[in-house]
Structure formats: C-alpha cells, structure tokens
Design a protein that fits this description.
A hairpin with a 7-residue loop joins strand 15 and strand 16. The radius of gyration is 28 Å and the shape is elongated. It is built from 15 helices and 16 strands. The two termini are about 40 Å apart. About 40% of the residues lie in helices and about 20% in strands. By secondary structure, it is an alpha+beta fold. It has an eight-stranded mixed beta sheet. The structure holds adenosine-5'-triphosphate and magnesium ion.
Length: about 425
C-alpha cells in the first residue's frame, strides 16, 4: 500500500476482534463510576493551544515536545488535547459548574494525542478514562478515587499485578522551600548529573527526581526529601489519606521520588504501576491540583483527579489472560433460511422475536447460500444455536432449532413458541 494510505505511526485502528475487550473494559468502568456517583462530561478533542500551555506548564515534556499543534484557517493556534484535565477545567469554568463552591464529581473518556516515540504501551493517539473532582478538599475524596480504582482492579482480575505508589508534594509554599533545598544540593553535584537533569535543574528542578539515569539516581539517594519539608496542612492531609487506605485494606508504598510530569499537582500524587508491561508500567496516575482552577482564571477551587491509560490496561488484561471468554461471543442465535419464501417468513419471524426479546443477539443470514455454506457461517459466528427454515419447515409453521456447541439434539419449534423457547436457553445480557 502506498505510504499515504497508511495510518499515522503510533495511531492505531482498534479492529473488530479487539473491540469486545475494549467495550467490556469501558462498560465495567462506566458502571462502576455510575455506582460511585460520578457524572460523565464530554469535551472537544481540539482546544486553543494557550489552554494547555497555561494549565500543564510551559516547562513540561508535554508542552515542550509532545503536542500536536497547528494553525487553523482563522490563524488560531489549536492543539489536539494531550490530556483531559485542562479541557475539563475549562469546561467547568465556562459553564459555571463549580460556582458557589459546588462540588462536582466528573469523568471523561476519549482519545489523547502526544508526539512521543511509539512503542509497546506508548502511542501517539491513546485513550484515557479520567476523573476530576472539584470543591472537595479533604483526604476522604483522595481515598475514594484510589478505593474505586482498587475495586476496578478487582473486577478486572488484575489486583495482584498492580502496586500503589503514593507521595505528597505539599502546598506550593512548602514545595517552594523544598525546591530551594533541592537545587542547592543538586548544584553542588552538577558534574554528576546527566544533561537532561542539568537542564531541568534550571527549568523544573522537581522533575530531576523523575530521572531514569543511573548516575543521577545515585546522586539523588542523599538528596533532601520532600517529606521533611511538608507543611502541617499537607502532612495532616497525607496522614488522613494513609489512614483511610489502611482502613480500606489497600496496600501502598511511599515513593518520595514520585513527582508526576505535570506542573499543576499539589499535596497527594499517586500512580498505579505494574511490572508486567516493561518500561510502560504506569497504568493510572493522578493527584491533587488545588491551585489549577485559580491559575486558569477561576475562583479558588480545589481539585483532585486521575487518568488511566486504556491501552496499557487492555495489554495487562491480555498479558495476565484475564479476558473473560464470554465477551468474544457476539451472536447467540444464527438463523439460516433457504429459498425466497423461507427468507420472507424468516424476516417476519425474526422481527417478532426481536420485539419479544430485545436483548437477544440474533443474526439472520444475509446473502442466501447453500445449506452447507450457511451452516458454516452459523458455526463461525460463534452462535450457540442455529435456526433452520426451509420449505418443509415453512409448510408446517415450525423452525429447526439446533444446538451448535453440543447441548442436546435438534428439534422443531412452532413459530409461535420460538421466542419463549429461546428465552429459556439463551442467557440475555
Ligand atoms: P508516562 O510517564 O508513561 O509517559 P505520563 O506521566 O506522561 O506517563 P499521564 O499524563 O499521567 O502520563 O497520563 C495518565 C496515564 O495515561 C498514564 O499513566 C498512562 O497509563 C497513559 N498514557 C500516557 N501517555 C501515554 C501514551 N503515549 N500512550 C499510551 N498511554 C499513555
Ligand atoms: Mg509521558
């Protein structure tokens, strides 16, 4: 195929054989979030570039080198959203959803775009489910966000493969004091830092803690710790969160190097990580961002949220073989009809059955074909039962009912009794 007719590198088609797993995953999350009282919000995929610069921060990997930015026909600079929080805050402010201190528990799902080096678990178009909570200040809501993800891992059967890492970044004042101490310490070891870290030391020193470079990591062993600089408010908040996680029986480890890539976090930050996916091990990440809304022009409004990477969680389900078998079967019953008269009767009959069993997954053969070829299609569809309608059956107003997966003998069912019969043998989702 010519190059122009291929998908863009790092932007993947999700093919029909994969969509059942995506829908199972998305459906499981959506039901869970309904149960916890979160409401869905849908934002546009494109926003003004300025929005991301102001919220994510100029000196971040995303804004410095990962955004898909272009000028539209009006000459406006637009960007394909690299994450969801900025647009969610923009929408909340634009529509006054957090006016008068009103709490909001929101979630969103959709594609995000970052110009990164594509590899397993890292793509240029990828999908996130994110939650954002506004105007709830306490550690109780931080705990709820973590508790509900823990429940999700349980529902998906991946609890044993993920680990919760936790840290507190303090308020911006205590972080400011910590930054001074960190910069002083690192400046004294400048020659041992990798090039990237030397640069970050000037632009965004906390990000040095994030380094993958072994020499820099060695220097960091004796660096000042954020925990020693936490103000009372952040410390009490963090203790409150840890107490709640312990009460809920959720194991966690404190990772003092966890800073997160985005500028806007304060107090709680956390990541769910797995060692089953190689280098792309973070499946869900988030934290508190109490200053962001104000920074974006709103009234002081606290916020906390997270986003999970759907591709990585799907990969994890596959790696751990936690894909439920039943999700790949998309047909319950396959109807084969032979000849014009039988086809007409089959259409009327199948529509009547659909009226009575709205959740039945009934596939009616299309494109005619011999007995053999229709039967082959029925089998390949994954259906549990085939229905067979030829001239003989039609004359007697019955239809052949044949189990395809070895549950009993073929029998004839009267047209009038078909829906009732199917209701007894097909579990309807
Ligand atoms: P990483 O350190 O892996 O680059 P990040 O800190 O940039 O992650 P966030 O912005 O916090 O990621 O996004 C939340 C989640 O979205 C990540 O934990 C991950 O699961 C997923 N994610 C982020 N970038 C990508 C990507 N390029 N491809 C696939 N999933 C991604
Ligand atoms: Mg990243």
């Amino acid at each position: 195929m010519s190059k122009s007719l291929q998908a863009i590198r790092g932007m993947n088609d999700i093919l029909p054989e994969q969509t059942p797993l995506w829908r199972y995953f998305e459906g499981t999350v959506a039901r869970l979030l309904d149960n916890y009282g979160y409401k869905q919000i849908r934002m546009p995929i494109v926003e003004f570039t300025e929005l991301f610069k102001r919220s994510i921060g100029e000196v971040t990997d995303i804004v410095e080198k990962e955004m898909y930015t272009f000028e539209d026909r009006n000459g406006d600079s637009l960007t394909l959203r690299p994450e969801g929080t900025a647009a969610c805050v923009r929408a909340v402010l634009e529509h006054g959803l957090t006016g008068a201190g009103q709490p909001q528990k929101l979630w969103y799902i959709g594609p995000m775009f970052r110009h990164e080096r594509p590899q397993k678990g890292r793509y240029r178009q990828f999908h996130q489910i994110g939650l954002e909570v506004f105007n709830i200040d306490g550690p109780d809501i931080d705990a709820e966000l973590i508790v509900l993800t823990w429940r999700l891992w349980g529902l998906l059967g991946i609890r044993d493969a993920v680990k919760l890492e936790l840290n507190s970044l303090g308020t911006s004042e205590s972080r400011g004091r910590y930054k001074v101490a960190l910069v002083e310490y690192l400046s004294a070891h400048l020659d041992k830092l990798d090039e990237d870290s030397q640069r970050r030391l000037k632009t965004n020193p906390l990000r040095v803690l994030d380094t993958k470079n072994a020499d820099t990591q060695a220097v960091l062993v004796n660096a000042p710790k954020m925990a020693d600089y936490l103000d009372d408010e952040s410390r009490i908040h963090f203790e409150g969160l840890k107490a709640r996680l312990e009460a809920a029986g959720i194991p966690f480890v404190i990772n003092t190097k966890l800073v997160r890539g985005l500028d806007y976090y304060s107090k709680t930050v956390f990541e769910w990580v797995t060692d089953k996916l190689g280098a792309q091990g973070t499946v869900c990440a988030g934290g508190r961002y109490d200053g962001l809304v104000e920074q974006m022009g709103g009234k002081p409004t606290t916020g906390v949220g997270f986003a999970m990477g759907i591709e990585r969680l799907i990969l994890l389900l596959e790696t751990l073989e936690q894909v439920p078998e039943e999700i790949s079967r998309q047909v319950d019953v396959y109807l084969c009809a032979f000849g014009e008269a039988a086809e007409l009767a089959a259409l009327a009959l199948s529509e009547k059955v659909r009226d009575q069993l709205p959740n039945l997954r009934l596939q009616v053969n299309a494109g005619a074909g011999s007995f053999k070829s229709q039967f082959k299609k029925a089998d390949k569809s994954g259906a549990l039962y085939a229905l067979i309608l030829g001239d003989d059956e039609l004359a007697r107003q019955v239809i052949g009912f044949k189990p395809l997966r070895g549950q009993g003998e073929q029998q004839n069912i009267a047209f009038d009794a078909l829906a009732a019969h199917l209701a007894t043998c097909v579990v309807q989702g």
